[in-house]
Amino acid sequence: MSKAYTEVFYHFVWATRGREPLINAELEPHLYSQIRHKCEELKVRVHALNGVPDHVHLACTLPVTLSISAAIQQLKGSSSHFVNHLAPAEQRFDWQEGYGALTFAKRELPRIVAYVDRQKAHHASGTLSAKMERRLAPFMGVPRCSAAVSTPRGSTHNR
Fold it and tell me: Which residue of 32, 35, 44, 124 has the lowest C-beta tally within 10 Å?
């Protein structure tokens, strides 16, 4: 096999089934640890991983041998399997079908990592990235008009 090199940075987002707030403070560290472990197995380089109770953001770089769809399928599948085999849960844990995937330039890596790292604060204050939320909303089961986003100048409004 010939050698190949790519430098593609991804920002993935996927949601819990029905956007149910299933990722609580007790589950979150275990879930994120499992996702990171699976990323290691797949040779996915994690730049940032975070989220809120109903969805997860992952900024990463995939190896050349792994497609986007295969990566997401394995991350979602292994993490839901993991959660459902923890101590008996009151509710089955499932991810919603689909995902959002954006690429970004290397120069944007610090900004995207900061955005992912501050997900809880962004959602609490309504200072979400207009561009990302507008593009990802249809894949997250959220109508575009209901997402609160910030304009480039920082003022917040509903879309």
Answer: 124
With residue 76 as reference, give the H or E element that holds it: helix 68-84
- Angle among Cα 42, 70, 49 to the nearest 5 degrees reads 60
Q: DSSP label at 129?
A: B
Domains by residue range for the chain, with CATH: 9-125 (3.30.70.1290)
The answer to whether 156 and 149 are in contact (CB under 8 A) is: yes
- Counted residue by residue, the chain has a size of 159
Tell the residue number behind the tokens 């149910």, with chain if given.
Answer: 20
pLDDT, tens digit, 9 for 90 and up, residues 89-128: 677 899 999 999 999 999 999 999 999 999 888 777 776 5
Q: Which amino acid is at 28?
A: E
DSSP H/E element including 50 = strand 45-52
Residue 124, classified by CB atoms within 10 Å of its CB into exposed (0-12), middle (13-18) or buried (19+), is exposed
Task: Give the residue from 29, 80, 71 showing the smallest Cα distance to 50.
Answer: 29
